Amino acid sequence: MRSSFDRASASYDAAAVLQARVREELLDRLRPMRLEPAVALDLGAGTGRGARALKELYRHSIVIALDIAPGMLREARRRSGAFRRFERVCGDAFRLPLKDRCVDLVFSNLMLQWCDELDVAIGEIRRVLRPGGFLAFSTLGPDTLRELRLAWSAADSASHVNTFLDMHDVGDALTRAGFAEPVLDVERVELTYPDVLALVRDLKAIGAHNVAAARLKGLTGRAKWRAMTQAYEAFRRDGRLPASYEVVHGAAWGAESRPAFASAGGEAQIAPAAIRRRARP
Question: Taking the complete model, does pTM exceed 0.70, yes or no?
Fold first, then answer.
């Protein structure tokens, strides 16, 4: 994944139409809240457009752009100027190189879908977020690229499109991590293309390669590609091919007293000290 996004850093912005649209929606949801974070973290910052927007929104805050790909952060440097300066940190969402309780706002646009261990990533966000801090994020749901997935199913049984988590699974992960008042909603977004090749080129340009374990490791043959493209034609409308995205928007507060619950094998483990007797009415 680091290599894919590193290679895509120069071409990312030109192809990241969905990412730009969803980023603006996330920012629009933050503006009315009148937060005053001392430290704001853009987690999965990419080329730094979100970090720059956060610096414009919170002029007196320290803004940190954190990404796993050094190439993305090199591109982000262009947007960090004297009056819109933000810090750039290369790091992994599974092991954030930040101290406990040092961030007031975590902003994450279309990054969590790349975390195959969602509980670990959410747990790290909760660790670095101060009590009463705020998390605003977006990710992708299971209906994302459904046309491409169905078209590939006509060619073979391999996994050619990444699998994304349901909104309810994300909400459960937030609850297990100890976040308070999680709120999630879904937005359906459709982009259109002249042909399948244009869609695939855009996905490659943003580094969105297939990372599914069941994916084919070799090259896709011409016969399978032809079968897939022919199947995709069934979705054509008004001369264009649609690509559907299920965008999940989420927000939650970092709870001050609620303990994080460690998850193992699908079970939530609660320390005995965290259990309190319910007060009688």
Answer: yes
